[in-house]
Structure formats: C-alpha cells, structure tokens
Amino acid sequence: MVNNNIIKNIIMPGVVKKKYELTSSKLQTHEFTQEINNLVVVFKVLFLNNSLYIYISEQNHQTLSDLSLVLPNSDGLSTRILGSGNENISTSLGTKVAHLVKKPVYLSVNINHNLYLIEKQIEQRLFDEIKNNRDRFIASQ
Fold first, then answer.
1. Could you give a single Gene Ontology term from the biological process aspect (predicted)?
2. Range name among 50-64, 78-92, 107-121 with the lowest pLDDT average
C-alpha cells in the first residue's frame, strides 16, 4: 500500500498551501418569464463584461439546442454556434438586440412548440424588458 502523503510530496515538491477566500461572483443575471399561448417562456440574461448572453426556453423543457452570436456592427455580422434547421430566430432576434444594446449578443432560443406562432410575442417581451431595465442592458455611451 502506498502512502498518499509521500506521493503528493513527490509529485508536487515545494508547493506551499495557500488559503483561499470565497467571494461573490461579479457576473450579474436577470430572469423573467412570460406566458404565451399557454406556454410559460423563461428568459435568462447573463451580463458579461462587454456582451450579453440571453437564453430563452420553455419553462418545463429547458435545453440548449440553439445558440447564435451577433455583433453590433452595421452589417449585423452573425454566426450560428449551435443548432441546425430553418429556425433562425436566434440570429434575427439577436441582430435586433445587438443593434439596440450596442454590444455583442449571444442568443439562444430553445422553444419546441410552434415557434413561428409565438416569435413576435417573445420578441416583444424581450424588448419590453430591455426598455424597462435600460441601465442594465444598454451600453453606456
């Protein structure tokens, strides 16, 4: 049987044990919901250093199957990071949000039920939230 203390000293000679202090995260989040056509939609926003991550999903079926990145330039340069198919709501909605907040936006829309029927309501709810919380969403000029 091998003595674990000996192995630690052999593998990590001269390592000084340091005390670490737990601190609160500097990342800020914001979450809200909206019922649309008997479906509860969850919106989760992660405020990153110079960008936003917005996750939109069904409350009872939260997955990560779609993700786009949109830059706030005049062309609305975007790329789809995750997902496939013809649903381009994350790119189109991300372009509108990036233009408004003037920072890169990672947008993930994960709705399985007739997305084309509720796309406008999702967009409206998100823009209402941005309007009501401008100080958190909009980049300072």
1. proteasome assembly
2. 78-92
**pLDDT number for residue 8:** 47
Q: How far apart are CA 54 and CA 20, in angstroms?
A: 32
| Distance of alpha carbon 28 from alpha carbon 42, whole angstroms | 17
Task: Note whether 104 and 111 are within 8 A (CB).
Answer: no
Length of the chain in terms of residues written:
141
Per CATH, the architecture of 28-136 is what?
2-Layer Sandwich (3.30)
Is 88 in a helix, a strand, or coil? coil
Q: Is residue 140 predicted with pLDDT exceeding 60? A: no
Q: Where are the domains of the chain?
A: 28-136
Give 123's contacts (C-beta < 8 A, 6+ positions apart).
93, 96
